[in-house]
Amino acid sequence: MSFNKFQLEGCGFNFNLIHLLWLQDPIFKNNIRLDVPDTIQILQGQPHFWYYSVDSQIMRKSKTKLNLESILNDFVKDKNDNHEICAVWITKKDNQTEFEFLSQYLLCQLISQMNYETKGYLQKFIYPKSEKNEVIKCTWGNNLCYFEVYTNKYPIMMQKADIYQRAVTFETPNGPVEQSTLKGTQFCQRLELLCGLIMSHVINVTQNQKEITLMELIFKLSKKGQIYLILCSNLSTSNIPSKFALPDFQITKKVTKELLNYPKAITLSDNSKCIVCDEEKNQIEFSKVKLKELIHYWESGSDHRSQIQSPKSYRMNAQLIKIDPTQLIPRVIKIMYPRMTLEEYQEFRNNTVFINQTISLCSYCFTKLYENETEKVKMIPKKHKRLIRTEIYDNEPIKYDPITPGTTKTSIYCGFLEHKVINNYIKRRLKLSNIKKESFPIVNNSNSLFKTTQSSRLKVEL
Question: Is the pTM of this model over 0.85?
Answer without folding.
Answer: no
